[in-house]
Amino acid sequence: MNEQIQIPFKKDGKIISLINMKGGVGKTTLSVGIADFLANYRGGSNKKILLIDVDPQFNATQALLDNYCDEDYFESILPKERTINKLFKPQVQFSEESKIPTTEEMIVELTDNLHIVCGDLNLVLANKSSDYSYIKKLKRFIKDNNLREIYDLIIIDCPPTLTIYTDSALIASDYYLIPNRIDRYSIIGISSLQKAIKNLTSEEDIDLKCLGLIYTILDDELTAKQIDMKTNFEEKSEVQEVYIFTANTSYVKDIQVGKQGPIPTRYKKSRNDLQDICIELLDRIESKELDNV
Ligand SMILES: Nc1ncnc2c1ncn2[C@@H]1O[C@H](COP(=O)(O)OP(=O)(O)OP(=O)(O)O)[C@@H](O)[C@H]1O
Ligand SMILES: [Mg+2]
User: Fold this and answer.
1) Does residue 99 contact residue 86 with C-beta atoms inside 8 Å?
2) 87: domain range?
3) Is the full-model pTM beyond 0.85?
4) Structural domains counted in the chain
5) Does ligand 1 lie within 6 Å of residue 60's CB atom?
6) Residues 218, 182 contacting (CB under 8 angstroms)
7) Residue to mutate, 254, 255, 276, ligand 1, most ligand atoms under 8 Å from C-beta
């Protein structure tokens, strides 16, 4: 009798950091939206997604746990340190071997296809040590646990500051994606981000590509002033080297005050935006991968 040999299908997941040095531009909302949409809203073609929250504000964690998880963050997740802090907490003893946690120790399953490494408010304290020896730990956690073979995409929500957490996220990533809100100071966030990325890629010898910039929280109709700001922004050399997504996120009041919380997939208008964003995002990744062949 012919016995068929089953070769397990291994994925080749890509890692994307959502980042902008400017605060409040919609990084977290977009990270949560992309992760949730790809994992839970594509019917038969859902993707397996891991969201990693490296922001000490841990807003992505709060939003997703509130919606998808029975466990209480402060009762069962934080005390057992099933959070990103496991990677960044200082070693207690000098002789202690630097251990990389297992997936069971760090990952919380929200739905079949959506998993999370929770953020941790203690990161605010840990960062005071700003110990640079930690910056490769996230990359090692992903590698040692073969996470690329398990997930189609790993999405990292970054804080709006240059810290060891943003460096760790970028070092672990294949790509970065820039959510950007049109305002007078947008350019400052992009210039400082591009400078930081140039320094990091030359110092650490990493291959990190920009997937593009997504305009966020757009009003249905831009005012003449906003159009002017957008034109000025796009004329800047730092922006000219970046691909600008056709898809964007519209202003949806319910994301701030709606009964269903800050998860954009819960609202039809945002869900439509996310569908367009995800199609463009997956196309961009595919074309970037083909560039390398
Ligand atoms: N499409 C949207 N429509 C309306 N409000 C939005 C939308 N996206 C985000 N917001 C709101 O804008 C604010 C900032 O969003 P968010 O927290 O995602 O930004 P952020 O860039 O992650 O901020 P931070 O820099 O503090 O991490 C929040 O109050 C959020 O609810
Ligand atoms: Mg945020």
Assistant:
1) no
2) 14-288
3) yes
4) 1
5) no
6) yes
7) 255
